[in-house]
Write a sequence for this structure.
């Protein structure tokens, strides 16, 4: 299957700082990338959908100014958590989809801890 | 509104036995896709199997098969010959038929709450 690489896998940051998470499709061009958030023992909740070269579409209740998404190329999308607070601590996971393909492939996820 | 329901928070199965994980869905869209993903404790989401709403036959991938009953709106995952490495969370998902401003499909997945499978030696 296709490979999606997400980096970093774990990050600990101080409250008030910003953290950038990268999601790369290594062997295919991802026309669409999705960012999810997963709290412990819960399901994945979609945060936003990003298409290359256009603004991301955010789900209701997700602050676009806090969770900045950039999809500058067909192989890279980034999620920046700005002014992070302890309540932002969570597991963030991206997925990438080729245009027209059925399945989406997921990155390894990033466990963010804000102290 | 579209949704996915997984009613089994946890399941146990003996090694080498088969197990069925339940999934029901709700959608008014005639065209949709159904997926199963495995999430081990490491957190990564591993794609297992896909079933399109117009597919005539049930999908199979190795030890995984999808029991697709369209009239009942169910898409149960069957794992045959369970292995210890199958212990993980399993999520059923449906591709949401959302359209963007230009009428294109966004292709987002919506997930059920998951089932934790434990394989006993």
């Amino acid at each position: 299957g296709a490979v999606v690489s997400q980096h970093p896998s774990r990050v600990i940051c101080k409250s008030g700082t910003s953290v950038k998470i990268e999601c790369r499709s290594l062997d295919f061009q991802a026309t669409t990338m999705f960012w999810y958030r997963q709290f412990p023992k819960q399901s994945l909740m979609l945060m936003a959908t990003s298409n290359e070269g256009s603004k991301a579409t955010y789900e209701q209740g997700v602050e676009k100014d806090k969770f900045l998404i950039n999809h500058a190329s067909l192989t890279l999308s980034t999620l920046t958590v700005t002014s992070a607070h302890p309540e932002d601590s969570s597991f963030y996971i991206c997925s990438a989809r080729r245009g027209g393909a059925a399945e989406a492939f997921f990155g390894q996820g990033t466990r963010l801890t804000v102290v | 509104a579209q949704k996915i329901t997984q009613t089994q928070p946890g399941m146990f199965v003996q090694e080498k036995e088969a197990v069925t994980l339940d999934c029901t869905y709700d959608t008014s869209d005639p065209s949709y896709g159904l997926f199963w993903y495995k999430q081990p404790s490491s957190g990564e989401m591993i794609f297992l199997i896909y079933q399109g709403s117009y597919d005539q036959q049930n999908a199979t991938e190795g030890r995984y098969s999808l029991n697709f009953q369209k009239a009942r709106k169910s898409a149960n995952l069957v794992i045959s010959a369970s292995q210890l490495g199958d212990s993980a969370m399993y999520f059923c998902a449906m591709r949401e038929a959302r359209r963007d401003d230009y009428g294109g499909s966004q292709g987002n997945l919506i997930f059920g709450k998951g089932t934790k499978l434990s394989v006993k030696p």
